[in-house]
Hints:
Layout lengths: L1 H12 L2 E3 L3 E2 L5 E7 L6 H18 L3 E10 L9 E9 L6
Antiparallel strand pairs: 1-3, 2-3, 3-5, 4-5
Amino acid sequence: MKSLILISCLALTGCTSSSGVIPDGADSYRIAHTGDTGFTNSNTLQKNAYKEATVFCARKGKVVQTIDMESKQSRPFGGWPEASLLFKCVERKTDT
Length: 96
């Protein structure tokens, strides 16, 4: 029974798609995540977008600076949940 619940949870949270990192203006990038079902929470999509942005910026030796985050829950007859993160990769601030 526990494994059935775990598989169900993984199936519901794993049903998302990502645009990948897309350049969007001078030194800024956008990542859009969309749920493939109406059961995905937009908070999960936001978290996934931030994780992807964090990995992208870390490869450059930098950290994420959020410019804008938009999200929508699933809507009856209106679409799946979605989240869009607009960000920059900036140098980590150090205390001196």
